Fold this protein.
Amino acid sequence: MPLNQLGKGTGDKVMLVGCDHNKLLEKRFMAAGCDVIRVADNETAIDHARHEVFGKTVLVSRGSLINITETVFNLRDLNPSMEIIVLVDRLGKPTNRFLKQLLEHPIEHTEILTRRQLQRRLHAAGPPAPPGQFA
């Protein structure tokens, strides 16, 4: 289910790979009704994907196009319908170079977002307003 269609009680299973400072992304996904599994690295993510089905995987990039690409292809082999998002974590010079590489060599069926863009989408996909109130 696309991020803009998330809703309370969807039960969509999301794997969050990499560093999530203060668990902000995890909290946003949970508020949108998702079950979240956090893993530390790409290898652990692939291992989890072998044993569980995830609707989404968010890969927090650390600036290595080769590692991200390899991980995406491995995850796609295990679950072709999984929505994969590459999250560009910081806007420093190394990340700008990485982002440029990703944009020049896009990975098919993979979305590239900044942390702020993802948080905005998750906030917008949060639980519906109570009856009689506007979101």
In short: Residues 129-135 have pLDDT under 50 and may be disordered. The radius of gyration is 15 Å. The chain has one domain: 3-124.
